[in-house]
């Protein structure tokens, strides 16, 4: 194929396979859709909305379902004179509660009237938000906070929004919160005052099975590929591989997309099982690296210390050795030095994700028992992920991330 000539064999509408695409129809999530309808029905009745906690792993349809059902609610309430619905959507990734509240305020304002992310007290920023909500002329405002687990222990926002009407003295507008979370265990760390309102109505999105993933892929493939561009069994294989691994629709779609890209690169006339299997390998590497990049800074520093020892051929290493390098790196990047117990917890969590391996070195009654740690994944993947963390890129201890 000539450079930049249009695809004529493989992709017809490649954007259908990208993360930014939202399907018109919600596939294989009718039960969850009905849960959503039940939870949002008070808005259609011009009543006080419920607060909704939505949880499930990445790629299981939480965001798409929320967008689609809220769109249905907006369309349905257009005919009611006593309901005027406004929806505000913010992704909380890499943001504090203060940052999110600032963005919520600015959602209501023109660019020339936006407030900065610094310079105002937290209480004043909330006052701005209540003022904007009250003056927006909507009868109902639904605030959707995606990836709320990124807020960590900073849950003040999750306390304030569900109580907006009483705290903000709102008289004309009802406020509801939808919190979307990738980790159900996150709720266990929330204060009781938050869980009592945020989790008023809970919707769980479980992983898809292979058949469900196959149906989703079939829908996407009909739009994304030319007729005859996919060999028999390709969709079933991609769905089965993702179903066995993660149960994530995003994972399955990524495999199919990557398989199509490989076929196009090779000048093939159709996508085959071989393309799918190679795509799975490449996607798994990409998923691991993204998970590594998504770790919080403190986990990055612990992983940096283990990587340093790995590169110096000093792994498996004991906790004390890891902690020594951890302390040095914290000093270099101006991060708070946590206790050895906290670092041990970080090591255990990294081991649970299979990023590092724990070795039980039992030396008997005389020597006692000790644990040692080493990397359990390709060191280049780790180094690439750590390079993406601006705070660690210039650290001098440990692996030289600036080289190579």
3D architecture notes:
The chain has helices at 30-44, 62-77, 97-108, 122-135, 156-160, 164-167, 192-198, 210-224, 234-245, 249-265, 273-293, 297-311, 319-333, 340-352, 364-367, 379-387, 390-393, and strands at 52-55, 85-91, 140-146, 174-181, 201-204, 317-318, 356-362, 369-375. The chain is α/β, with parallel strands linked by helices and 404 residues long. The protein has three domains: 30-204, Rossmann fold; 208-292, Helicase, Ruva Protein, domain 3; 295-393, Winged helix-like DNA-binding domain superfamily/Winged helix DNA-binding domain (Arc Repressor Mutant, subunit A), CATH 1.10.10.10. Strands 2-3-4-1-5 form a five-stranded parallel sheet, with helices on both faces. A three-stranded antiparallel sheet has the order 6-8-7. The longest helix has 21 residues, at 273-293.
Concise synopsis of the structure shown:
With 404 residues, the chain is α/β, with parallel strands linked by helices. The chain has helices at residues 30-44, 62-77, 97-108, 122-135, 156-160, 164-167, 192-198, 210-224, 234-245, 249-265, 273-293, 297-311, 319-333, 340-352, 364-367, 379-387, 390-393, and strands spanning 52-55, 85-91, 140-146, 174-181, 201-204, 317-318, 356-362, 369-375.
């Amino acid at each position: 194929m000539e450079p930049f000539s249009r695809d004529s064999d493989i992709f017809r509408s490649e954007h259908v396979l990208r993360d930014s695409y939202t399907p018109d129809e919600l596939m294989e999530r009718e039960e969850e859709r009905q849960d959503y309808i039940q939870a949002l029905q008070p808005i259609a009745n011009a009543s006080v909305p419920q607060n909704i906690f939505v949880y499930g792993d990445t790629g299981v349809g939480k965001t798409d379902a929320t967008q689609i059902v809220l769109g249905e609610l907006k369309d349905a309430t257009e005919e009611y004179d006593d309901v005027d619905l406004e929806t505000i959507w913010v992704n909380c990734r890499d943001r504090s509660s203060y940052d999110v509240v600032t963005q919520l305020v600015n959602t209501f304002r023109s660019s020339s009237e936006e407030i900065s992310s610094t310079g105002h007290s937290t209480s004043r920023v909330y006052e701005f938000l209540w003022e904007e909500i009250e003056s927006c002329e909507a009868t109902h405002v639904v605030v959707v906070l995606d990836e709320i687990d990124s807020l960590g222990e900073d849950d003040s926002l999750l306390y304030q929004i569900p109580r907006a009407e009483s705290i903000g003295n709102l008289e004309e507008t009802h406020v509801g919160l939808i919190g979307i979370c990738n980790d159900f265990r996150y709720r266990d760390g929330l204060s009781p005052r938050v869980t009592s309102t945020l989790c008023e109505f809970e919707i769980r999105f479980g992983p898809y099975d292979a058949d469900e993933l196959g149906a989703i892929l079939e829908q996407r493939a009909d739009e994304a590929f030319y007729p005859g561009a996919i060999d028999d069994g390709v969709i079933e294989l991609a769905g089965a591989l993702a179903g066995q691994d993660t149960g994530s629709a995003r994972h399955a779609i990524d495999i199919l997309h990557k398989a199509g890209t490989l076929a196009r690169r090779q000048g093939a006339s159709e996508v085959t099982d071989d393309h799918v299997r190679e795509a799975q390998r490449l996607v798994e590497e990409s998923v691991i690296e993204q998970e590594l990049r998504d770790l919080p800074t403190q986990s990055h520093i612990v992983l940096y210390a283990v990587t340093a020892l790995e590169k110096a051929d000093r792994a498996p290493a004991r906790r004390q050795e890891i902690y020594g390098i951890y302390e040095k790196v914290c000093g270099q990047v101006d991060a708070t030095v946590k206790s050895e117990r906290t670092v041990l917890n970080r090591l255990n969590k990294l081991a649970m994700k299979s990023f590092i391996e724990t070795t039980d070195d039992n030396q008997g009654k005389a020597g006692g028992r000790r644990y040692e740690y080493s990397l359990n994944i390709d060191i280049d993947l780790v180094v690439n992920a750590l390079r993406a963390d601006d705070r660690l890129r210039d650290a001098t201890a440990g692996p030289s991330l600036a080289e190579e």
